């Protein structure tokens, strides 16, 4: 399949709009082993300085969050509980916002994904933020890159018929931020994390 990266203007939408627009797009990673891709079916938005669940809450600027202060369309990867997670930097420059990609539906490179997620049924290859990075071969080396050029890009896919929104997951200690309905997913898609 021939994937063309989404233009910069796509990533310059307001963060909550982009979090919904990403659903149905194709996340593509090229590695020496080959290419693997999947339709994005679940995202979570983090609205920077005022969002207590965001790594950049209060404009916290560290080595880890630095890329969030760059232009939209950059790749923000970080490690949590030994898993690498991948985010799309959004918002304007110096306004550190990002969108976590929580789940994808496998599309291309199925043998590669099966090998990387060996011992798991297909449904469990990519139905979580740490699982999808393993399956696609996304690592901390992708940090700071751009989704506008290989090896890691976001390409046009399909437009979901129905998008559901609800609370974000795993952020219980963030006060009122835990109740914000900033998680979005493709209705009834079997690869949504939970």
Describe the structure.
The longest helix is centred in the C-terminal third of the chain and has 8 residues. The two termini are 29 Å apart. Strands 1, 2, 3, 4, 5, 6, 7 and 8 form an eight-stranded antiparallel β-sheet that branches. By secondary structure, the protein is of the alpha+beta class. Helices cover 13% and strands 29% of the residues.
Outline of the structure:
This protein is α+β, with helices and mostly antiparallel strands and 194 residues long. The protein has helices spanning 8-11, 15-21, 110-116, 129-136; strands at residues 26-31, 34-46, 75-80, 83-90, 97-108, 152-155, 163-166, 183-186. 42% of the residues are buried.
**Helical residues, percent:** 10-25%
What's the alpha carbon Rg, rounded to whole Å? 15 Å
Q: In angstroms, what separates the terminal alpha carbons? A: 29 Å
Q: Please mark out the parts with pLDDT under 50 across 5 or more consecutive residues, or reply none.
A: none
Structural classification: alpha+beta
Percent in strands: 25-35%
Annotation, overall tally of beta strands: 8
The helix count comes to 4
Question: H/E element string?
Answer: HHEEEEEHHEEE
Based on CA inertia axes, which overall geometry fits?
Answer: globular
Q: Major beta sheet, specifics?
A: 8 strands, antiparallel
Mean pLDDT, to the nearest integer, reads: 95
How are the secondary structure elements laid out?
Elements: H1 8-11, H2 15-21, E1 26-31, E2 34-46, E3 75-80, E4 83-90, E5 97-108, H3 110-116, H4 129-136, E6 152-155, E7 163-166, E8 183-186
Antiparallel strand pairs: 1-2, 1-6, 2-5, 2-8, 3-4, 4-5, 7-8
């Amino acid at each position: 399949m021939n994937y063309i990266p989404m233009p910069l203007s796509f990533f310059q939408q307001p963060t909550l709009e982009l979090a919904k627009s990403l659903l149905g797009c194709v996340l593509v990673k090229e590695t020496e082993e080959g290419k693997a891709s999947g339709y994005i079916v679940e995202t979570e938005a983090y609205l920077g300085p005022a969002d207590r669940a965001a790594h950049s809450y209060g404009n916290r600027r560290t080595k880890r969050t630095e890329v969030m202060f760059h232009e939209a369309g950059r790749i923000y990867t970080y490690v949590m509980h030994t898993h690498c997670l991948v985010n799309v930097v959004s918002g304007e420059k110096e306004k550190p916002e990002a969108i976590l990609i929580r789940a994808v539906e496998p599309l291309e490179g199925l043998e590669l994904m099966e090998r990387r997620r060996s011992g798991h049924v297909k449904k469990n290859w990519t139905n979580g933020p740490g699982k999808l990075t393993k399956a696609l071969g996304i690592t901390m080396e992708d940090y700071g890159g751009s989704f506008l050029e290989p090896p890691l890009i976001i390409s046009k896919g399909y437009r979901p018929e129905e998008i559901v929104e609800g609370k974000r997951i795993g952020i219980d200690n963030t006060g009122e931020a835990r109740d914000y309905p900033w998680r979005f997913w493709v209705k009834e898609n079997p690869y949504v994390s939970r």
